[in-house]
């Protein structure tokens, strides 16, 4: 039986860089851009003689990259050895496979037969990322289509991925794949881990529909998916990031405080001879101290993403530059971080107060948000007819001010560290966006740079903003906030998406 699982991409609205150090928090929104993993057996039958075999077969297919790799997996050491490949390797999926099987072996240590049989049938894994993870600007322009979301909607689902030109890729330049910055590696790793752990019987995940019916998730199962995915992601990346991307891929939108890096020390020392089953057992039992608090945008607010250029930027080198600046100028960097942290907390507090106001006085809230959605910010207060509405406007201004302060200090940090965290071209776009009717705030997500920018809009103002962006040569994406984390899918996502697709325009 095939298992289909999916995990969402993310937008780190506030907390970039700071979230790398406890106890700073990051505000992360998960999105409707999802990564899918399909796991099924490679062979129908297990040959009787295969019980003694020490190897099994794993096939990994990435149709969007036209890549297919066949591996031999040693069942003792859980090491994947490629035997044939039509492209470069995928360390995220390889580690996801190795650590998921290790977790299954650790779980079923006393009763290995069923697991052994499943593994000997081989694993056929297919991975698919929604178009929103990738930049299609160049193709849209090349096809002569307008820079509007409808052009993106006309692409076939799971379209081919374009690569950035070779001369522009590398350490300080663009990443290999033309990406939008939604965290494809974390969503991909999480989807593969979730599908495999469910397939192997380690966890029992449910679909979104089932989750709604039961009105609860099995958090213990999600915690296992989180630990295995986080471990595989860190080891594949070769560094321990803050982990907000994997956490949101598993649990959805949230306020996140990182785990102490020590929980991963056994995995970082793997390769020193400790069997992977023992390693993952240690990591699963470690004291995971990350904190996750409920957070999502207040009602009648929409997350919008706009692509000003294409191709994105490379995060690891930006983190390195910030760390270097912290070492070289401890006083100034500490002060900038303190102010950034204040700005992040203020933004979070204002948005939470707005959610509370909506809960307690929905009519007044709805009325003033809809009025503000038609006007630029300087006119908002004029439309407040009574004290609750004035309170809502005051909170809207609080959130805007906090965002402006965050942007100011992020720019300062970029200048001091010598990297383009909020480069001039992005500043101009963000200022113009914040002055548009119905825009609450706009910023650069995560580490900043040349990835897509985000805006939070009020009421029905989305259409106006996407049109205004189009005239500024910015492509509004189809990404929206979706607070759901990892889930099981009932069917092959390609079949679902194809029926849902509006039309299919073949890309060159
Ligand atoms: N559909 C896919 N099939 C196979 N590999 C993919 C697919 N999509 C992305 N990848 C691989 O996933 C990795 C993405 O990692 P990378 O760190 O560049 O991006 P990211 O996680 O999206 O980063 P960010 O958080 O900045 O968005 C790359 O190695 C890329 O080749
Ligand atoms: C710079 C950092 O704080 C955020 C990176 O975010 P993004 O991948 O640019 O969305 C790094 C991290 O949290 O791991």
TrEMBL record:
Top-rank taxon, per record: Eukaryota
GO biological-process terms attached to the record: farnesyl diphosphate biosynthetic process, mevalonate pathway; isopentenyl diphosphate biosynthetic process, mevalonate pathway; steroid biosynthetic process
Domain GHMP kinase N-terminal, first and last residues per copy: 179-252
EC number: 2.7.4.2
Gene Ontology, cellular component aspect: peroxisome
Any Pfam family: GHMP_kinases_N
EC class of the enzyme, as a word: transferase
Keywords: ATP-binding, Kinase, Lipid biosynthesis, Lipid metabolism, Nucleotide-binding, Steroid biosynthesis, Steroid metabolism, Transferase
Gene3D superfamilies, sorted: 3.30.230.10
Gene Ontology molecular function: ATP binding; phosphomevalonate kinase activity
UniProt xrefs under NCBIfam families: Pmev_kin_ERG8
Family of the protein in this entry: Belongs to the GHMP kinase family. Mevalonate kinase subfamily.
Protein name in UniProt: phosphomevalonate kinase
Organism this protein belongs to: Withania somnifera
Gene, per the UniProt record: PMK1
């Amino acid at each position: 039986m095939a298992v289909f699982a999916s995990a969402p991409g993310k937008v780190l609205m506030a907390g970039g860089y700071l979230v790398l150090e406890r106890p700073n928090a990051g505000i992360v929104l998960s999105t409707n851009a999802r990564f899918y993993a399909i796991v099924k057996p490679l062979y129908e039958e297990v040959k009787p003689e295969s019980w003694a075999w020490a190897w099994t077969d794993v096939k990994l297919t990435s149709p969007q990259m036209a890549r297919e790799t066949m591996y031999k997996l040693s069942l003792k050491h859980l090491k994947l050895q490629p035997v044939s490949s039509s492209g470069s390797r995928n360390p995220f999926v390889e580690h996801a496979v190795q650590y998921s099987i290790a977790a299954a072996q650790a779980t079923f240590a006393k009763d290995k037969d069923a697991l052994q049989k499943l593994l000997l049938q081989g694993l056929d894994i297919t991975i698919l990322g929604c178009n929103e993870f990738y930049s299609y600007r160049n193709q849209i322009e090349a096809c002569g289509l307008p820079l509007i979301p409808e052009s993106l909607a006309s692409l076939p689902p799971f379209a081919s991925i374009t690569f950035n030109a070779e001369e522009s890729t590398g350490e300080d330049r663009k990443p290999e794949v033309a990406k939008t910055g939604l965290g494809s590696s974390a969503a991909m790793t999480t989807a593969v881990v979730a599908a495999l752990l469910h397939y192997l019987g380690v966890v029992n995940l449910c679909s979104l529909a089932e989750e709604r019916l039961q009105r609860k998730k099995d958090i213990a199962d999600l915690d296992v998916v989180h630990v295995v995915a986080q471990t595989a992601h860190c080891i594949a990346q070769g560094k321990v990031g803050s982990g907000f991307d994997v956490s949101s891929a598993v649990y959805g939108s949230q306020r996140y405080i990182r785990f102490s890096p020590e929980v991963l020390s056994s995995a970082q020392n793997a390769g020193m001879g400790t069997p992977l089953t023992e390693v993952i057992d240690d990591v699963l039992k470690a004291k995971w101290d990350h904190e996750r608090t409920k957070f999502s945008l207040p009602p009648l607010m929409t997350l919008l993403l706009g692509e000003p250029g294409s191709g994105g930027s490379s995060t690891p080198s930006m983190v390195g530059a910030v760390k270097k600046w912290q070492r070289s100028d401890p006083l100034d960097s500490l002060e900038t971080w303190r102010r950034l942290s204040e700005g992040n907390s203020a933004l979070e507090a204002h948005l939470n107060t707005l959610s509370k106001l909506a809960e307690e006085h929905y009519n007044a809230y709805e009325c003033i948000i809809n009025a503000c959605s038609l006007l630029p910010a300087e006119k908002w207060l004029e439309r407040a007819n009574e004290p609750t509405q004035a309170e809502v406007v005051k909170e809207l201004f609080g959130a805007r001010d906090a965002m402006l302060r965050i942007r100011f200090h992020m720019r300062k940090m970029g200048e001091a560290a010598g990297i383009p965290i909020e480069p001039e071209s992005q500043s101009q776009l963000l200022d113009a966006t914040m002055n548009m009717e119905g825009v609450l705030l706009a910023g650069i997500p995560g580490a900043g740079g040349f990835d897509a920018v985000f805006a939070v809009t009020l009421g029905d103002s989305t259409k106006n903003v996407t049109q205004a962006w189009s005239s500024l040569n910015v492509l509004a994406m189809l990404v929206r906030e979706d607070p759901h984390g990892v889930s099981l899918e009932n069917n092959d996502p390609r079949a679902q998406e194809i029926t849902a697709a509006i039309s299919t325009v073949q890309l060159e």
